[in-house]
Amino acid sequence: MLQGFKLFPKRYGVYPYIWLIYLAMPLYYLWNSHGLQQYIGITTFVVFVLTYRQLYMTAGTSHFSYWLSLQMLCVLIFTLILDPNMFFLGFFTANFIGWYSDKRVFRFFLFIFAFIQTIPIAIIITFNQLNTERLLFFIPFYLIMLVSPYGIKTMLDRQQLEAELDEAHQHIKELIKREERMRIARDLHDTMGHTLSLITLKSELVAKLIAKNPERAIQEAREIERTSRAALREVRQLVSDMRAISITEALADAKETLKSAEIELRLTGKQESYADVPDLTQNMASLCILESVTNIVKHSKATLGIIQLERLPDGIRIMVQDNGIGMNSNQHHGNGLKGMSERLDLIDGSFQISSGSKGTRVVIFFPLIASEPQGGLSL
Question: Could you tell me the pTM of the whole model?
Fold first, then answer.
């Protein structure tokens, strides 16, 4: 039965055992007492030791206040029955009062404790059992006894705050890891989605041409090899750092992807340089363009794709449209569109989708924030 018994919780270490040394004082007075005084003293001592253990065992529970009140009563009995020096056992109680985290409860028990510790001193003074010299000896310790709970409470509050900060740091690390996994998943989908679609289309084309036009099939197979090697480089680059894609590069990739799917691409709007658009903004917008083009190839069965870029006073508007069969409800909630939304959120952008029997139109907008000079920050 004693196998699972613990005198004190392990988390407190040797601290509770060190305080047991101070119980030698009441044992000394009990040894020199007689009769009823000794019986009352022994009973009180047993109860005091029990309260000492239970205060460690019930810390943070509703029973803690019960055992604390009982311990204060034991100190009072010791002081009145055995000797005024038993007053110093109040340091045990002062220590536990500092464990209260609630300020109102802390102040309440500190007030009760101060009142109870005053009772034996007042009685002894009344009956002339304590001379002035001994009174001056007791008062400093009485004041220290009342101040010590504040120090203990401050120390425990700081330890709790440090523990909460450590927990918060661990939580932040987990969030960073989770966000990093999501970022890698998005980047793999965005950067590799259109490339893999291109490889698939070319592979299907090779299968069709291998009998009819072997030379063209060989040419397309070599193109697949080049594309796959490029994809491998992109993956390696992605692992080391997020690959930035400019809008111009995205348009060139989109043209190649649609051409491989035998879909005509029509670029409208004024063709201009986007050098004044920050790299991050270009990268996010470019990935959204490529995602839209990939969706055209995968789902639209279109013969025409239109990409329109328009510079507005407050930003840039990009429209990607096709003349296909439109999107179903499942495609509206796919990973690609979710990734577009998350990426545009990073640059305060937005996008709208309209789809019907005459095709799908994706309109992307993001505010134009000029790049900072070298050495500064850029969005």
Answer: 0.47
| Burial class of residue 16 in the structure, from the number of CB atoms within 10 Å of its CB (0-12 exposed, 13-18 middle, 19+ buried) | middle
What are 113-171's pLDDT values in tens digits? 999 888 877 776 776 655 667 677 778 888 898 999 999 988 888 888 888 887 887 77
Q: Which residue has the tokens 């270009």?
A: 282
d(CA 285, CA 291): 10
CA separation for the pair 348, 17 (Å, rounded): 61
Residue 351 and residue 365: Cα distance in Å, rounded? 6
Residues 6+ apart with CB under 8 A from 123: 80
For 127, residues 6+ apart whose C-beta sits below 8 A from its C-beta are none
Rounded Cα distance between 159 and 184, Å, is 37
Closest CA relative to residue 246, chosen from 271, 222, 274: 274
Domains of the chain: 2-130 (no CATH), 174-367 (3.30.565.10)
